[in-house]
């Protein structure tokens, strides 16, 4: 999430009651979680295991619960007892949840010849290009960006919260919600079927590349990036922070795990489960997925087990 | 389903044109189906195979199509030719379907600081606690109870009818709908993703325990009881009358069959199918599920079949 | 799709700037794609591989990009450079997309005692019979026909566009949408759960037979024909142009591929994947499906592989 203007680290520190250590004159330009961090970003870390990763990331400002680390040159530490709470405070401050009571927010920009049918909810700062059709009962959350010539069929949800929790497992709380302040970006010529759900990024963007076509009831997790000209059949589910490269075909009910990559032009056959990255240009099948030709051979081997028994018993 | 005040068995008998046999001065306090029956309840039975189970259940009043049974002491029989039709008559009488034309019923109770966004439907006698967010296009059916600090994302349906039919397979009718008169109860700190469907109990309650977090497009069947602090990833489906104990994790696209129990803190890996009860504290995988370590070993065995063939052929 | 009155081939030719060859006095009564074509229909073909099939189909009028074929007696060719574009032009002309801004179109016919709850969208020329209940947030697209005594639960989408593209894979466009102009026909006594999506036919009809009951979150593809008294559990997905005969039971999360037939009274167990036609009257399991008894035996064989190894090693 990017700020509309850079904010001084002292102003940030005041919002979260932090001590400023290191570069006290820096400005932050946005907030991101560690997996998506850019130069100028504020990032937070609360576990010693990740201190070094966070300090050495691209982040300019680090919210941290220790003073006992070496500060990389030019960077700023904001010391607080509870970095996670500080993150939530900043999100609430810069991207507050505003309980919108109108259907179409007056900050929304909607292009020429775009048809918005009845009962569509369009949130704060949404941009929709020209020549799109948005069918009834679609929900489009704040900061979503949709290109030109897109079709969003009925009942689809764009920009639902990331399913992303900080696991505490204390007596009072097991799962603490990592508030989402990211968005969804849909490029030109994308078609999304009925009853789909596309989560927004936690702090960054979930992206659907141009020309991609999605059938009904497809779930796309937060921060997942989908290439151009992909084809997803009905009931496909893709977890968070995964990358699907250009031209990938996923047949019906395929499930894809998180933080992996499916290479260009790969094809995954129906009902397969993808637990790890797949090379492009090949056909896959099974749970867990294998190359389809291998998996099919295995199905034959299993059928021939009785024959093998017979041979052994002879 | 509980009555607001106890009803005399004679009043019940009149509604369904029944003969009252046994205790003619009893009062009934509710209606339930045989799996969920409590003291004070009316229950019905129409097949000789289940006469004894029903008579010996906790039910106080039994709607039955025979007089040729021994009545347990203190109980009341209501004799009719068609007990199932009598049940439907009582449901229609005590929980009539009212074609609500407003979005938010004026009997609904909504707590402090709870945000109801546009196009949310809230039925008759719904209670929602404080500090909740209900996103657009959510449907909340009659008698649903939601605790505090809950989030229900866009397009989710709470309290859809049970998928529960009396199989007749006559020429005129194969499946006769068992009308739902139960409800859904959601405890505190529950989050439910976008596009989920949670069926209400047939006569009793579907329950989601406190702290449980559900991703998008999850289906929960009627009368299913989910414990505290469970975590369900997207596209999980759980059939009716099942029990999921506290702290259970179900990964994406897992399917769970009906009337079984998954024990405390069990983890079921993605796309697995659970056909029968699972012990708590273990990790499961596969369709049908096995302990994940065993299932993974089997996958290796299959891969080594050609090696085995080679050995046998030598 | 049928025209309201027959149209002369010359009028059709004018709309798409075609040369009329063969029978110049014929009238067309509708448009259909090659899989669904009837006498009187206009059909299009743009690939030499399919010229003969199309010319010898029941179609009366063939839009084609060659003059170098033998015209079957009495038939009419409409010669254009781009038959697919001509098809799109005709669909846009005869079934234009009209951006409806009211919830219930004034051309809709709704039967006696049918309850339409709030926020239901009903399109152009929809017919709904008597004694139905349509729950909130349901979307019913143009030309849908629903019989008597049907229940459509909340959030369901009826008549979403077919997921059907002409694959081009040029630099500019990979997938070109085959515009849908067909509809959905639902017969009497059908119940459809919450959050389902039923695609309309591309040019013909998607049909749900009488007495069929569908649970929540079920996807039915375009032009699929479902028989009477079928029972589909939650999260079932059926691809396009498939035939499910009477009395078929599909348990939870079953996936069914396109253009196949599942025979009468077949039962497919949960999470199975059906890649090809299945004979009626049997029970199936697995991905790909096999008869359940065979599949279960295979699961046992796999478990006994270590025993077999042991025997071989001895």
3D architecture notes:
3 copies of one chain form a homotrimer. Chain A is globular and about 80 Å long. The model of chain A has no long low-confidence stretch (mean pLDDT 96). With 314 residues, chain A is α/β, with parallel strands linked by helices. Helices cover 16% and strands 30% of the residues of chain A. Chain A is built from 5 helices and 34 strands. Chain A folds into 2 domains: 2-94, Udp-n-acetylmuramoylalanyl-d-glutamate--2,6- Diaminopimelate Ligase, Chain: A, domain 1, CATH 3.40.1390; 109-296, Hexapeptide repeat proteins (UDP N-Acetylglucosamine Acyltransferase, domain 1, 3 Solenoid), CATH 2.160.10. In chain A, strand 33 (283-285) and strand 34 form a beta hairpin. Chains in contact: A-B, A-C, B-C. At the A-B interface, helix 4 and helix 5 of A face helix 4 and helix 5 of B.
